[in-house]
Write a structure and sequence with these properties.
Layout: E1 9-13, H1 30-42, E2 46-48, H2 77-83, H3 88-93, H4 104-118, H5 121-133, H6 135-150, H7 161-164, H8 168-177, H9 179-205, E3 209-214, H10 223-227, E4 242-246, E5 256-261, H11 265-270, H12 274-286, E6 289-292, E7 300-305, E8 315-318, H13 321-332, E9 337-339, H14 347-355, E10 360-363, E11 385-388, H15 397-403, H16 406-415, H17 423-433, E12 438-442, H18 443-446, H19 476-488
Parallel strand pairs: 1-2, 1-12, 2-3, 3-6, 6-9, 10-11, 11-12
Antiparallel strand pairs: 4-5, 4-7, 7-8
Amino acid sequence: MSPILDKRRAGVLLHITSLPGTGEVGDLGQEAHHFVRFLHDTGITVWQTLPLGITHADRSPYQSLSAHAGNPELISIDWLCKQGWLRHTDITSEPKNALGYPKSNQLLTKAFQGFLECAHEADKLDFTHFCHSKDFWLDDFALFMALRNEFQEQSWNQWPEHYRDREIKALQEARRRLKVHIDTTKFQQYVFFRQWLELKAYAGQQGILLFGDIPIFVSYDSADVWANREVFKLDDNGEMVVVAGVPPDYFSETGQRWGNPHFNWHNLQKTGFIWWIDRLQTQLELFDILRIDHFRGLEAAWEIPASEETAINGQWAKAPGKALLSAIKSALGDIPLVAEDLGIITPEVEELRDEFNLPGMKILQFAFGDGPNNPYLPSNYITNCVAYTGTHDNDTTIGWLERLNDADRHKIFEYLGSPQLPLYCALIREAMASVANLAIIPMQDILELGTEHRMNTPGTTVGNWTWRFHWNQLTPERTERLRHLVKLYNRSG
């Protein structure tokens, strides 16, 4: 176990997009730094976010255009103005989108022009160094984004064959023709990484660890699949024969058909899993702790024929998780990984998790339905785990409790010792009081919010990933209650 995870800590789950602010989504500017100060003041030492990648139209951070690139929508425009690369008049004169916000992509293009015209020489050298140090993914990604823009955001398998199949002469010509777009994309990544690393440094000064999330699969329409076909199970034309998902479970009677390509583990293993190691290396630059989403897919993953509309008619396909984790450990050492071991967990998955001493996840909303041996009951926890009231895929705790019948609520009331507190407060207290080394509380639960504020409803594609909080929701009473629980249960790290 990494020393970071081997002590009692408390954390808050809040994605960057959920921060307050004047833009269309939360960003890496002053509100993010303000949130770090709030965590420090309450004794919280872990800030967990969702993946940071560039999303598709559904805005899911679990379906991104790159496993390495950060989302330019998270860039602070005010920061660019402070650097002198963008003028406030650029913001006010910029056409607005349907929601009344300036179009950030156009502002970032203007900022690049400002950078070229007036940035200090040290900044320009820093940008050049960034491009060289990230060229193992950045070159392909920037070209991918330029071509995707040229073809009206069609998936890469719909591009003309010479681009789809990465013919050398065609790509050379495209790099020359699309140089401005390519360089602008690289600049956006430079700014994203620079802003994020400034936030990480500030968090470190305040004693706050950043906890990131790695989706096990990548989107088919991504630079990763376009540039690394051999890493994935594709046919000769680059089409998917099978797609990823999960069978019917707690969240969906028909399972979830995610539509991601499956890994070609045979080819990955021949290369020493270098694609995976590079991917983790990027995320370790950004985060102090990493969660592997859908960890059970490293032991076996649900393969669904691409022609199927639901996830029902799939099958489990084995994966070389032990070899992969061994290669990661050999290359990167004992890095602080958390296994998202939810869903259908077999003894083989538990064995893989435990062999590498990875903490799993314990969700209180899953704890009260299967008798005293339920692994999510706090009385069955071990120290090497992460306790949650709920995750981004769960309803808020208040919303979940309201949907339960009286008998189920009474089970919880009895298990918690007939508390005088409201049940949602008692459940937060239970997570904090547990033996789990790390207890994470979603921000919605700290703010005592209902179902309408949940982040995501699995199996749906509308109305997700848009929730944001406001500072006036964080009353002094709620802040003090959180501070008291952190201190009471010795979770200040």
